[in-house]
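Q: Could you fold this chain for me?
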Amino acid sequence: MIEDAIKALKNGDMVLLHDASGREDEVDMVVHASAVKPETIRRMRKDGGGLICLALSKEKGESLDLPYMTELMIKSNDTVRNMIPVKTAYGDKPAFSLSVNHRDTYTGITDRDRALTITELERADSPDELAGNFYAPGHVHLLIARSIEERRGHTELSTELARRAGMTGAVVLCEMMADDGNAMSVEEAGRYAEDNGIILADGGML
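A: Sure. Below is the predicted structure, expressed as structure tokens.
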């Protein structure tokens, strides 16, 4: 199933990715950033419903000189420093970095604007290019993977899929939510995958 997910990602298709029953126990929609179009964002917000983020590999984050949000918070005032979580509810450090918009966007939140920000950031390869073409805060939340030995979240699992596919470490994620307001169960996500011809991959196999 992992090999099928890698092939789908390489083809520009969406895959679903479950992290682990002992962690978030959530299923995320996953698409490589280079394949994102406005229709991708629309589908994620309608069929997924969670937060749409751009996950970057550790190497990609370092190439752009991006910090983790907690690194910025620790340099702020006491109030902000006291908001830094020791760990998340599922036991590890947050992967959040900045939120950004491309400078050619208008509000930044439309399907077109977010798709533009995502595809252009996937191509960016230097701090000067990041600072010249993007601004923060914006509407695309960036995540930076930690090592997969340290953290096995969707950020790390999805960028590992991209690495194995020989692609850049830039993958768009969106948690799948159920109609009752909770995270969609693996079983319900499996039915969605089957109905829509999408691969559902088990992150525990990575």
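A (continued): The chain has one domain: 2-205.
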